[in-house]
């Protein structure tokens, strides 16, 4: 006989496939067998149809296509005998799914089999329907399934309940048909029927609020009694699992009670006693008992408030944390995170155990415990928790240090009781894991340092000490170099000593040594070296005796292959050699950086820099954007951290930079009254031609623009303004004076109003740029309280661009007002209106207040 004929037994085919030594041999066996099955199908061989389908199912499990045999399933299902139907329904569940159109052909056969006199055939139909039921089949066959929920045989009732669950998930509207039959299943004594009935009731409650109320009134007490009976039942070998009677039924009952008790005080009171009994009497030394306890804890935390029960539930989770099983500890940490919103005090009692989980060897438990600790931190416990975490940071694994460092920095920044403590903790983190500290974190540290003038000396000395032991930590080096450049005089003179610190002896040469080491250290990157060059320039001004040495160190980078370092080296050398009179002004100490503005930028509500010239903001090493420096200083790109604002001494800068004398000569008798002689020299210097006479009232001329005979030349009195200085680089085209045109007027609106705050928007629009709207926001305090740390944030859709300037103040006086300007560019102007989401945060008597809203009432046409 042909070994691959239809008469081949299934076991023979499996043996032949397993005997294949290569994939090619296996494919050959399958290909020959599939050819034989196709031939048998074409011949309509009824004797071997069930065997062919069994082979197809095995081939399907191997991953080969078997679509050509799908119709054979339907033929076998239509057969009268049970063996054929069994193979047919099994093939139907394996080879087809609810998306197949051919499935519609089997609906009639299913309906006939659901009404069959043989209960085993009814069971087959219920199994198939529960696995592949589509929405159309559910609507057609729901009445039969509802009827079978009351069938005499418990196995049929159990399968009918499982099938009903599938029907309700597919068509929720049919749930009302199953309310009464499912409620009757809750009184069953057979555990198999009872557990499926409880599952069915749970699904109905999720999709129907009417059913939920019905079950709360009619079934809660019965479910509590059933759970009590099972919990107190004696040993039953039929249902016993690890010494516990039917833990699966326990869990299903607890899930249904959770659904019924959520949001209903009466139902919750009814189940309090049994939940306490299950929580206190269930043994936790076996996995089955832990599963019941975990489900009981979830139920207790979900139903209406009962303080004692919740403490008991959280204590159970605390015991879980001491379990040796990683899975149990992980789910306990997850549940404790959800419990924080319900009873944070009870969770706080297990803080020490949670902290130990942070030190666990399992990475997933470490991360989950760290997230939970982060949520547990508050003003009262931040010091001990931060201390523990920083101590663990020293011995933690490299893979975990990044997450741990980020959480510690966030905790310290958010809950720091005082600035000195914040600085101390951040220095410890920088010393241990500075490589993992993100840029915005050490930028924020520098902002805090600038805002604590009484701690400048203490901070620079602490950083100097830390630098000698942790030179490998790049971020620590950057912060230390920045502070030494700013406060080197305080370091050398031991100024601002605090009682808690010991004095140290640092000479001017020592300060230069540290910065030189940072430049030459093998781990220093371009940013660190660039910051070191700036620090050296500042030190040369603070300590004139070290100027020659600083000049030598800076000069070593003139031949650097890195353009940034080469450029800085050349420029700074030029400043030290040729421009001694402007060096002190260039390297003045950084002004205090506004913390509220920096926080707003970190949150993403403000632009990177507030620029009035339309140019891109400068990128400076300490990460804080600033306004453009004085244009004359910018001629040599001397963009240090403390560029002074342009003053009336701008003429002296011109004299130094261009090497010319801008002093005004005496007027010649008989000559016309010209502009200042400095302007003549500048014009002659660039060969622009003789200047024309000055006309009265002309103050807007371009300093270096080519002038015709009728155009006025600006006098040197007007050159001291920053805008006129900016014209120095603006090219040589004529720039006639422009009269401002504010464009059409738009009415003011009340953008937001509450009982405590009112926000008004005033609009202006330039006629040459109709897409751009200037908005002045007026914030009005409607209460007698002062609002501190005032911060306005806004967000707009993608077709809009928003530019926010800083507010006039970060403190809103009682019954007073402050203003803030913003600019909105609408790329869809005339097509889409402006919309904006806003958020305002401030503090009243130390308490944080947050107000949010959406602004949709902008005038049309903006």
From TrEMBL:
<dbReference type="InterPro" id="IPR008153">
    <property type="entry name" value="GAE_dom"/>
</dbReference>
<keyword id="KW-0333">Golgi apparatus</keyword>
<dbReference type="InterPro" id="IPR050840">
    <property type="entry name" value="Adaptor_Complx_Large_Subunit"/>
</dbReference>
<comment type="function">
    <text>Subunit of clathrin-associated adaptor protein complex 1 that plays a role in protein sorting at the trans-Golgi network and early endosomes (TGN/EE). The AP complexes mediate both the recruitment of clathrin to membranes and the recognition of sorting signals within the cytosolic tails of transmembrane cargo molecules.</text>
</comment>
<dbReference type="GO" id="GO:0006886">
    <property type="term" value="P:intracellular protein transport"/>
</dbReference>
<dbReference type="InterPro" id="IPR008152">
    <property type="entry name" value="Clathrin_a/b/g-adaptin_app_Ig"/>
</dbReference>
<dbReference type="InterPro" id="IPR017107">
    <property type="entry name" value="AP1_complex_gsu"/>
</dbReference>
<dbReference type="GO" id="GO:0016192">
    <property type="term" value="P:vesicle-mediated transport"/>
</dbReference>
<comment type="similarity">
    <text>Belongs to the adaptor complexes large subunit family.</text>
</comment>
<keyword id="KW-0813">Transport</keyword>
<feature type="domain" description="GAE">
    <location>
        <begin position="744"/>
        <end position="859"/>
    </location>
</feature>
<dbReference type="Pfam" id="PF02883">
    <property type="entry name" value="Alpha_adaptinC2"/>
</dbReference>
<dbReference type="InterPro" id="IPR002553">
    <property type="entry name" value="Clathrin/coatomer_adapt-like_N"/>
</dbReference>
<protein>
    <recommendedName>
        <fullName>AP-1 complex subunit gamma</fullName>
    </recommendedName>
</protein>
<dbReference type="InterPro" id="IPR011989">
    <property type="entry name" value="ARM-like"/>
</dbReference>
<dbReference type="GO" id="GO:0030121">
    <property type="term" value="C:AP-1 adaptor complex"/>
</dbReference>
<dbReference type="InterPro" id="IPR016024">
    <property type="entry name" value="ARM-type_fold"/>
</dbReference>
<keyword id="KW-0472">Membrane</keyword>
<dbReference type="InterPro" id="IPR013041">
    <property type="entry name" value="Clathrin_app_Ig-like_sf"/>
</dbReference>
<dbReference type="Pfam" id="PF01602">
    <property type="entry name" value="Adaptin_N"/>
</dbReference>
<keyword id="KW-0968">Cytoplasmic vesicle</keyword>
<keyword id="KW-0653">Protein transport</keyword>
